[in-house]
Amino acid sequence: MADTLTPSDQSTACSPLEQEVLDEYALLLDNLNKLSTVLSSLAERPTAEVLDGLRMLERKTSLVCTLLKASVYSIVLQQQIYGGEEGEG
Predict the structure, then answer these.
(1) 3-state secondary structure string across 25-68
(2) How many angstroms separate the CA atoms of 68 and 80, rounded?
(3) Would you name any one GO CC term (predicted)?
């Protein structure tokens, strides 16, 4: 008689596959909580290494922007020069 389940036990009993899925969900929840904790700590206090990297990226970006502007200016200037020569010739 110990093997029989009462109606309330039958509604809460899970198949092995269902129990495995529930265990995986519990593991996923634990991993997500750990990830959340790590991300919160990183967001609260950015490290000097990250800030240095961002400063370097900012310098490189501004250099590329300056070079791009200079290239565009050079192209426009050349077009004006060649356009002026064609008008004279």
Answers:
(1) HHHHHHHHHHHHHHHHHHHHCCCHHHHHHHHHHHHHHHHHHHHH
(2) 18
(3) microtubule
Q: Which residues contact 13 (CB under 8 A, 6 or more apart)?
A: 5
Q: How does pLDDT run across 49-84, given as a tens digit for each residue? A: 888 888 999 999 999 999 999 999 999 999 999 887
Look at the block and give the residue holding tokens 């519990």: 26
Place of tokens 């009993």: 13
Closest residue by Cα to residue 16 from 4, 24, 28: 24
Looking up tokens 């192209």, which residue turns up? Answer: 75
Report how far residue 8's alpha carbon sits from residue 2's, in angstroms, rounded to the nearest whole number: 15
Read off the amino acid at residue 77: L
